[in-house]
Amino acid sequence: MPDMTSLPPIAILGAGSMGGAILQGIIASGRDGGVTATNRTREKAAAFDGVAGVTSIALEERPDGNADALAGAKVVLVGVKPAMVPDLLREIGPSIRPGTIVVSLAAGVTIATFESILGTEVPVLRSMPNTPAVVGRAVTGLAAGSAVSDEDRALVRSVFETCGAVVDLPESQIDALSTISGSGPAYVFLLIEALTEAARGKGFTDADARLMAEQTFIGAAALLDATGEDPAELRRRVTSPKGTTERAVAVLADAGLPALFAEATDAALARARELATGA
């Protein structure tokens, strides 16, 4: 049975696409203890006006809004763009109360950066959600800093579980996770594009080709989720000996598809490491 314990008050500083998705997950869970979200403009802040349990602040109207958001928060999610993180941390540092947990949503910003500005006594976690958070089906990697207790980690994990699954891992594996779950939706969309194009090539209309390809992926993923079976076992059940699927899968295997995915994710990991050095 899922844990229905109420979450504590949460502040989301920079409730853009990812921060906003997590906000929606928290509210939809029915477990929120109140969420305060900040955005730079009135236009962006207006997206959350009238949402029960949410206080939305436009910084252009309330320049001290980030500090105000921290006033009663137990968990603070930092969702601004990576380049803006150091300035934001210097701004909110004096307002962080003992026991407040700070969580990064910013790609590429290390826990060490947070601790160097906020101090090593502040519990800091680094998260790496992916875009399916907007539909409550994220995979979020979660790495903890030196001051994070087991209780802190469990609390932050419960926040991210409102919009999907969570993987606990050391920070050294965050970049590797990003090549699988972070970039992964793009790989899936690329495969759907390719299968759609193959259907068009066999004479199907654009609408039917798209329907067939998209719903096949959606249905297969739903079947995998519902059964809990190993994907290799489900593949075997579809692949009759000497049948059409077996021949198609053999073509993909001969083309080196597994090795191609390994090569692609290795390339993504190499680029992540380049970005970390400013390249």
TrEMBL record:
Gene3D superfamilies: NAD(P)-binding Rossmann-like Domain, ProC C-terminal domain-like. Pathway: Amino-acid biosynthesis; L-proline biosynthesis; L-proline from L-glutamate 5-semialdehyde: step 1/1. Transmembrane segments: none annotated. Catalyzes the reduction of 1-pyrroline-5-carboxylate (PCA) to L-proline. InterPro entries: 6-PGluconate_DH-like_C_sf, NAD(P)-bd_dom_sf, P5C_Rdtase_cat_N, P5CR_dimer, Pyrroline-COOH_reductase. It catalyses: L-proline + NADP(+) = (S)-1-pyrroline-5-carboxylate + NADPH + 2 H(+); L-proline + NAD(+) = (S)-1-pyrroline-5-carboxylate + NADH + 2 H(+). Belongs to the pyrroline-5-carboxylate reductase family. Residues 10-108 form the Pyrroline-5-carboxylate reductase catalytic N-terminal domain. NADP(+) binds at residues 13-18. It is found in: Cytoplasm. Residues 171-275 form the Pyrroline-5-carboxylate reductase dimerisation domain. It comes from Microbacterium invictum. The keyword Cytoplasm applies. This is Pyrroline-5-carboxylate reductase. HAMAP family: P5C_reductase. GO terms for biological process: L-proline biosynthetic process. One of its GO terms (cellular component) is cytoplasm. Its main location: cytoplasm. Keywords: Amino-acid biosynthesis, Cytoplasm, NADP, Oxidoreductase, Proline biosynthesis. NADPH binds at residue 66.
